[in-house]
Amino acid sequence: VKTVLVSTGGGRYDVVVGHSLLAGLGAAQARRVHGGQVVVCVDDNVAPLYLEAVTGSLRTEGLSVSQIVIPAGESQKSLARAEELYGILYDRGLHRSDTVVALGGGVIGDLVGFVAATFQRGVRLVQVPTTLLAQVDASVGGKVAVDFRGAKNYVGTFYQPHLVAADLDVLASLPPRELRSGAAEAAKHGLLGGGSLLRRVERFASAGATASAVTEALVAGNVAYKAAIVGEDEREVSGRRAVLNLGHTAGHAIEAATGFARFTHGEGVGLGLRCALWLSQRLTGLSAEAVARAQALLDGVGAPGRLTGVTADEVIALIARDKKASDKGVGYVLLEELGRPVVGVSVPPELEREAVEWLLTR
Ligand SMILES: NC(=O)c1ccc[n+]([C@@H]2O[C@H](COP(=O)([O-])OP(=O)(O)OC[C@H]3O[C@@H](n4cnc5c(N)ncnc54)[C@H](O)[C@@H]3O)[C@@H](O)[C@H]2O)c1
Ligand SMILES: [Zn+2]
């Protein structure tokens, strides 16, 4: 078991990473998070697999445990679903010192985290991420949100959990496509962090990037990297946290261009990272060797090799819309070297188009 301490203005908490953690969740939680009533929220894919282990473990600690099961899928990240959850928590008499457990992937983590942050201005929150994406990325750092009028994560806040427990064993049941989606975020962290983190993600890729190739060191290394960034810039004001958007400018536009239906988030990010590497070679001096090494890593984690089914115009229009919608008005996060990101790079429109066209034809 590896424990990473996350320390921000909004809270200090442990991220515990290891095998067979669900059975010990009650004990781990009782040690760190006090309070009597616990409500476990989960989606209907994860419920039959892991809900009993979690509630059983919490009950062993003498806690009063109930559950809420909602359908799976991004469409659940809505104000309507959040309001329904408020109603259930209200009816169950949840107090500020009680705890909500988000058992699931990033959708459950974002939705339930948002509800926990806002119900009575904040009840205790424990994240039990069950996808690789949620373990290496979404469950850490305190961003919680729902979608609004088709815009992803448009209504939300920052709310740090009180504990994160990432059990690697649950990844065994994850569909391979979802595993690859999380692996793309791990690759992003490797490219941003460089050094030993990059080598660790490369070893994961060489080992086939399967669930059994996920190690404590890989997940804990990703969490430690993100924790360091978030510790410096919890609310994305100084620009430090913005590095985490590497690959997300084009990635997000690619997801949006297909109505968030055709690509998983990680597939969009994988393609967006390829695009950012191409631009980095031309704009920020990333060497051809570094680009080749990074593209090979993306191949190794199973990122899509090329963009299909959309036009360059569609993607470029959505990138422009994204830029306008964000108050930062910023450009891209690019790399000068592996492990050396730069933020706010403005990319000439013709080069942006060339990059997207390259992605469509490579
Ligand atoms: N808050 C953040 O910092 C942050 C960062 C990245 C992504 N996100 C958000 O995360 C969401 C995507 O998260 P995700 O990729 O985890 O998707 P998800 O939560 O939809 O999970 C993917 C699928 O896998 C199923 N599943 C989950 N765990 C499983 C398991 N162990 N075994 C079998 N099936 C399992 C789910 O039911 C779902 O069908 C997006 O909404 C995105 O905006 C948030
Ligand atoms: Zn992402």
Summarize this structure as a short list of keywords or feature phrases.
binds nicotinamide-adenine-dinucleotide, 362 residues, alpha/beta, two-stranded antiparallel sheet, binds zinc ion
Q: Would you mind describing this structure in some detail?
A:
The protein is globular, with a radius of gyration of 20 Å. Helix content is 47%, strand content 20%. It has helices at 25-32, 47-60, 79-91, 106-118, 132-138, 176-193, 195-206, 216-232, 248-257, 265-283, 288-300, 312-325, 349-361, and strands at residues 2-8, 11-18, 37-43, 64-70, 99-104, 124-129, 143-148, 151-158, 163-167, 332-337, 340-345. The strands form three sheets. The chain has a seven-stranded mixed beta sheet with strand order 1-2-9-6-5-3-4, with helices on both faces. A two-stranded antiparallel sheet has the order 7-8. With 362 residues, the protein is of the alpha/beta class. It binds nicotinamide-adenine-dinucleotide and zinc ion.
Average pLDDT score? 95
Count of separate DSSP helical elements: 13
Q: What ligands can be seen in this structure? A: nicotinamide-adenine-dinucleotide, zinc ion
Helix content: 40-55%
* Strand element count: 11
Shape: globular
Structural class: alpha/beta
Largest sheet properties: 7 strands, mixed
